[in-house]
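Quick one: structure tokens for this chain, please?
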Amino acid sequence: MEKNPFLPFSPKSNTVLAKYGNQSVQDHIIDLPLAVNYYNNFYKTRLSVDSDITKKAWFSIDSLDHYFEKVYHTCQLKDIKITGMSFLFGAKQDNTRTVFIAPMCYDPKMEMDRAFTISDNEIVFLHGHLMKNHSTITNCKTLIETEESLVLGENGFLSISQVVALYNNYYDAKIKAFPNIVKTDTRIVYYRKGEFEGYIDYLKEQCEKEDIELTGINAVFSVYNNDASYGDYANLMTLFFAPTTSGKKSFFSFDLAHENFLDFSRNTWGDIQGINQISSSMFNRGSSSPPPWSFD
């Protein structure tokens, strides 16, 4: 039987019929107090000891639409079975955080789903086991083309060379550099095929109903609570996703979009009036690794 990555949260029901398949969206929506808590955890445990003040990575809705169209079209032509979509953590040359997106497929050699791209008409897996410090790709200086790339960064498609540099530097600058925070940390957040794509469809539907301009999505750096209920995921990095409207401002909910924006200039959040009564547009509850993969 094909092995699947561990899911820390069990799906309850499918609520949105996305064009990529019947996938749950509401099961991945987290309430605002939890999003605030994860954001505050990130500042208190990571930014408080790091000169890097990066709190999010932004992707325009147009770039995401184009990206998924290219990924699914390419994989259909090449008969590649996509199993999920991954968001990998990276660090730029100046050691600031970033995120890049890549599809996943099952690798029978390693018996796990792995993020990949295409080069010379062949699948190239971007990482080995995610407990390893660096990418398994070596001698990648010549792998600089982006025409076949299935990896999307904040500013467009990334070459394999760029991906490896970002991925490796994340370990060197963000994990190895702060051993007192965690022994190892999250390298990738991922969703099964159709789940994140369904979230985009859901945002478009809700924004159309409320006459809100959807301009993109912020991937917000955050950290799980450091308590026993999170098991192996306690105090590890995660991402939650927040839709943006004009000016790249993320909003809490669809019904109060023009009154409540996420203020990323603040180190922590905590004075959102009536936060428990505001409906949420925050998307989380995916899978992540490390900790080590486990299987059904």
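DSSP finds four helices and 16 strands in the chain.
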